[in-house]
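Let us work through a complete example step by step.
Step 1: write down the sequence.
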Amino acid sequence: MTRLGDSVARASALLVQDLSTDSTVEQLLTETKARRYLDLSDLPAQEQAELIAARAVEVLPGVAKLAERIEARRAEGKGLHVKLGIDPTAADVHLGHAVPIITLSRFQRMGHDVTLIIGDFTAKIGDPTGRTAERPPLTDDDIAANLAGYREQVRPFFDFEKVSFRQNSEWLAPYTFPKLLGLLAQVPVSQLLQREDFRTRLAAGSGLTMTEMLYPVAQGLDSVALDCDVELGGADQLLNLQMGRKLMEVHGQKPQLVVTMPLIEGTDGTGAKMSKSKGNYVGLSAPADDVFGKIMSVPDRLMEPYLKAWTEWTDAEIAQVLKRVEERSLHPMDLKKILAGEVVAALYGVDAAMAARAGFVAQFSKKSFTEVETPVVELAEHGAEPATVVLSKVLGFQPSASAARRVAKQNGLRLVLQSEGGQDAVVLAEADAIRPLGEVTREALAGRQVTAVYLKAGRKIAELRGL
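Step 2: predict the structure and record it as tokens.
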């Protein structure tokens, strides 16, 4: 059995136990945290390819081709040459940025050679992917500061001691104009204009500069310069990555394989990508308690993609716990606590994860509301109304959805579940604030035996009856 197989066997024994208990959760977090450093070089080529593909959106031209390339490099006594390009456009990094880095770490632990390309040259152009307007260029000082912040924040997910760093100004800055013209003569304009964001901007009458048009070519030349086997990138980078394949063919090289990674949905549950501008992100530099609480606020449906994005769990393990949730032998909130613990453990260690878990639980177990006179909300009357309306009618909030949404965004909107064993709480995401309160409450109570349920917004609270 492989080293990964041994770890899976140990975790499987834990996943059938009571996952609401601290002792079991701590053992599980310890096991899965250790996987982040597990040597995966003993996996057969096909299993390595499948493990990479399990967390990718696409592997082009296919998983079988990736396995073949791994096997071919092994026959030569070496690993694949894998690269990821980084344009250091911001100093702060969130969990969405960690997704390709985690996959890159798996390549690294499989025994492959990894290169991080620092896009100091392309950052001055500005990647137009997903933009509705031209991205402002960066200065050398901006790039240096952002890169330092990036390395420090993603360090928990990646071994920077076992990676090569290259700056693409090495080969792009001296690239001559005659040479560029000769290359562009072999690149159809139609290939550049396949990009949906370009077509959208042109249709809207927005500007599109030649530097933006040339960005995919510049990125493709990175692959040519390094003669890569594999390039990673976000799913929105697919056309840029395919340009790398095209330019490698033009230069007589064997085209790289492309592995695209999912774009992670933000914590607010609206379907928008995680981003700082939307405020729906979890920062890698946030305190452990904040990271734990923010993840506890996400809709239940995000647990599966989040488990796949940020943990070292296998597909079979994820399917196992989701089946337990479906069968009601595991409450969604208990699984969410494990997910939050996984992320905190990755950033700060298992002890910090367990402390954040205890702190979260303590917030909702110190007080009992059974002896406190509170307003009552009859779900028979108000269950079809969203929490925003109920808050307005019963708890005196302003009669608008924005008030409740602001509270939810700050993790202040909760269902408090009273039972004989104490209290627990379900943090409601912003999207839950505008759903029918009765529906949200029934989902929270699935598989739970409770004596009372309360809706809490900040310091205001009301008892929900008629469940």
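Step 3: interpret the result. The longest strand covers residues 413-419.
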